[in-house]
């Protein structure tokens, strides 16, 4: 064997050794920080962890053979678990926004959930945002509903009467009694409450806004490897209808695909 071939083989062996030394092992487990009281997304009932998020992660586990562990708490604790390394991602129907994109790498979105106007089921004449001109619009204290109603009024050049309530339960009861004409809910929450008979209502066809839901990951090499595995599973679940079936089960509607003519403002490379 000549000297050139010996050198070439030695370099190739060195390259393989270096690649092996620095390669990230294929991930086998993932820990997900998830809420404990967010019905119907992720909550506990009679000791069971239920909701869309546990169902989605069960499907991801089946497709990837990842062992999925959960650490649960109130919403304001979940990103702390992620940042501290106690969790690898957050599974709580997290909305993509610029502040989060600046800090985390997101998976492919697994849900596109619009903000919707909720009106009485007999109010079939209300079809567009501007149709709420002059109506009583209720929202709960501390929510973003009041700001959204103001934005709609400004954008559409209409006037609305804002009525604030101390809690969402009081708001819902006022709506049932006809003291409020319009509310704002996430489309999934509205679908769940209507499907399960909590509200006799319908949603206005035109969306207020659309929230893309995805899983955030830290930017270290191991986290990015997990992100790649999860994204691949989400893509497969969109294609084979697994995600659609989960949403139909919980909401009677499919939120796995973006609304018609929706253009995402985010670049999740």
Task: List its traits.
single chain; 269 residues; alpha/beta; four-stranded antiparallel beta sheet; three-stranded parallel beta sheet; 9 helices; 14 strands; disordered N terminus
How would you portray this structure in words?
By secondary structure, this protein is α/β, with parallel strands linked by helices. The chain is built from nine helices and 14 strands. The protein has helices at residues 3-22, 52-64, 75-84, 98-101, 145-156, 168-176, 187-195, 221-240, 242-251; strands spanning 29-35, 37-38, 42-45, 48-50, 67-73, 89-90, 105-106, 111-120, 136-140, 161-165, 182-186, 201-203, 209-213, 216-217. The strands form five sheets. Strands 8, 11, 12 and 13 form a four-stranded antiparallel β-sheet that branches. Strands 5-1-6 form a three-stranded parallel β-sheet. The protein has a three-stranded antiparallel β-sheet with strand order 2-3-4. β3 (42-45) and β4 form a beta hairpin. The model is unreliable at 1-23 (pLDDT under 50).
